[in-house]
Amino acid sequence: MTHTKKRIIINNIVMVLSTLSALIGIGFLFWILGVLIINGVDALTWSIFTQEGAPPGNAEGGLKHALIGQLMIVGVATLVGVPLGIMAGTYLSEYGQKSKLSEAIRDISDIMMSAPSIVIGAFVYAIIVAPMGHFSGWAGSIALTIIMLPIILRTTDDMLQLVPSTLREAAFALGAPKYKVIIQVVYRGAKAGILTGILLGVARVAGETAPLLFTSFNDNFLNTDMNAPVASLTVTMYNYATSPYEDWQKLGWAAAFILSMFILSLNIIGRLFIMKKKGK
Amino acid sequence: MSIIIDKLFANATKIIAIAILLIVAWIFVVLFQHSIESINAFGFDFITDTKWAPNLEKFGALPAIYGSVVSTFLAMILAVPLAIGVAIFLSELAPAKFKAPVGVSIELLAAIPSVIYGMWGLFYFVPIVRDVFGGIGISMLTAGIVLSIMILPFMAAVTRDAMNTTPDILKESAYALGGTKWDVIKDIIIPYAKAGIIGSFILALGRAIGETMAVTFVMGNVHKISADLTQPATSIPVTLANEFTEADTELYYSSLFELSLLLLVISFTIISVAKFYFLRRKRLV
């Protein structure tokens, strides 16, 4: 066999193997999506949106409590996390720039983005739940805020840096003070990017389960008091799926389907924003 | 007037930015404070002791550490070759019209919450492992496999991005010399993208070791070290998820905090290595 022939054969083997691994990978992933869709659509009924949790064996159970609880916990986290993240990102990009302090904050944020979220749950348990003596929706929101902050901060920072400095200079030349330049010119230029960061940040924390296990805990009934344990889709899903009751498992699949569709749409919308921006 | 607002705005942003550093420091301090009782009671034995018996007030973390290491190692062995294969397919092999849809669906699958991977694993993968390998299906092996599927999309997407940074002119020159696709991948693309690829793998490893929900469903929570992969096991995050709300004594509670601290230190170290030695400022995170 000539050297060339050998190289061609090896090449073909590798190409087949990598196509195969792509097929395996994609196959697994579509398997999961398929399972979600089949079980989720099967379990979706109107009563899911109108009924609260019910004891197993009672067909009338729903997810209303978890849907509303999820909205409250993630909503509060977003309301707190987004402005704080944008402000901190603004400091890095507009004031701190390449200073040592800014670089340190960037590095720490990057590391925190991949840090285990269950540890954040333990932290919030220690500073909020234990002193107050009970689980609460607030504690869950605080845990999610801490997870969301570095994501919003880093995307804001990156997106603001993409705004051309000539825009800032033009505004300064008109005599505008720096805060006005930032708010009226820089933010406007980076709007789509910041929004994408927010969407991805919300999508990320909406799927978090571990930090909620010991902060907001769970409730099988509707509770809108953030000062008490609040149900969330993710923890409900965990409890229902690991229960031995078939109707609870079914509700678990419905929760999984609703949540993943929500998170996937946020991701897709976020991507469309980025693409639109690039297309300009 | 506007000078005052200007100052206020500048200082407010600075304070919030610094607050983020302080929160991270605060996390370490709080976890350490709450671990002190356990550290005092067990010292270094906490890490080497294999007995975890809450009823006897005896807490040794070795089974959980062992479970974290072995399940992560299994996940990496399974996911690394697949991720490289997928990345090669996406960056070099796939026809142009497949690249975007396949790439985007892989990225989207990386966004699916880990609790869903866990649920899928429990209902669909546990029975398969039970039938094929024996045991009850809830095991170290299942945890490793589910974990590998969870980190695969992330690894494949980042590896593809790293491979895509190879300048076309380098590849074209190699093709012009008569290189096959594999020659170009092995001699040009992989060496060029090496740092990024290794970085992404280490980052995935850092994430896998802290991954909680995907494994909590399928690992069991058995504090035993067994060489038999089909046996149920536990890991640091699985122990935390299962036992945190059950801790009824000070020492139990403190031991769980020491586990959290251990997990944070381990993942912080791994992620930092990935970031500072391999990824630098390339924003691959």
From TrEMBL, chain A:
Q: Mainly resides where?
A: membrane
User: Might you name a Gene Ontology BP term for this protein?
Assistant: phosphate ion transmembrane transport
Q: How does it sit in the membrane?
A: Multi-pass membrane protein
The residues covered by the ABC transmembrane type-1 domain are 67-270
Regions that span the bilayer: 12-38, 67-91, 111-129, 135-153, 185-206, 251-274
Q: Where found?
A: Cell membrane
Task: Answer yes or no on keyword Lyase.
Answer: no
The Gene Ontology terms for molecular function here are:
phosphate transmembrane transporter activity
A Pfam family cross-referenced in the UniProt record is BPD_transp_1
GO CC, alphabetical? plasma membrane
Q: Which UniProt keywords apply?
A: Cell membrane, Membrane, Phosphate transport, Transmembrane, Transmembrane helix, Transport
Q: Which PROSITE patterns does the record associate with it?
A: ABC_TM1 (PS50928)
* InterPro entries in UniProt: MetI-like, MetI-like_sf, Phosphate_PstA, Phosphate_transprt_permease
Say if the entry is tagged with keyword Cell membrane. yes
Source taxon at top rank: Bacteria
Which family is it part of?
Answer: Belongs to the binding-protein-dependent transport system permease family. CysTW subfamily.
Protein name (Swiss-Prot/TrEMBL): Phosphate transport system permease protein PstA
Name its species. Sulfurimonas gotlandica (strain DSM 19862 / JCM 16533 / GD1)
- Gene name for this UniProt entry: pstA
TrEMBL record, chain B:
Please give the CDD domains that the UniProt record associates with this protein.
TM_PBP2
User: Which residues are listed as membrane-spanning?
Assistant: 12-32, 64-90, 102-126, 132-154, 189-209, 259-279
Gene3D superfamilies referenced in this protein's UniProt entry, alphabetically? MetI-like (1.10.3720.10)
Keyword line: Cell membrane, Membrane, Phosphate transport, Transmembrane, Transmembrane helix, Transport
Q: Which Pfam families match?
A: BPD_transp_1 (PF00528)
InterPro entries (UniProt xref): MetI-like, MetI-like_sf, Phosphate_PstC, Phosphate_Transport_Permease
The listed locations are:
Cell membrane
Give membrane topology per the record.
Answer: Multi-pass membrane protein
Q: Name one GO biological process term.
A: phosphate ion transport
Mention any one GO cellular component term assigned to this protein in its UniProt record: plasma membrane
According to the lineage, what is the superkingdom? Bacteria
Q: What does this protein do?
A: Part of the binding-protein-dependent transport system for phosphate; probably responsible for the translocation of the substrate across the membrane.
Report the family membership.
Answer: Belongs to the binding-protein-dependent transport system permease family. CysTW subfamily.
Report the PANTHER family cross-referenced here. Answer: PHOSPHATE TRANSPORT SYSTEM PERMEASE PROTEIN PST, PHOSPHATE TRANSPORT SYSTEM PERMEASE PROTEIN PSTC
Q: What is this protein called?
A: Phosphate transport system permease protein
The taxonomy runs: Bacteria, Pseudomonadati, Campylobacterota, Epsilonproteobacteria, Campylobacterales
The protein's gene is named pstC
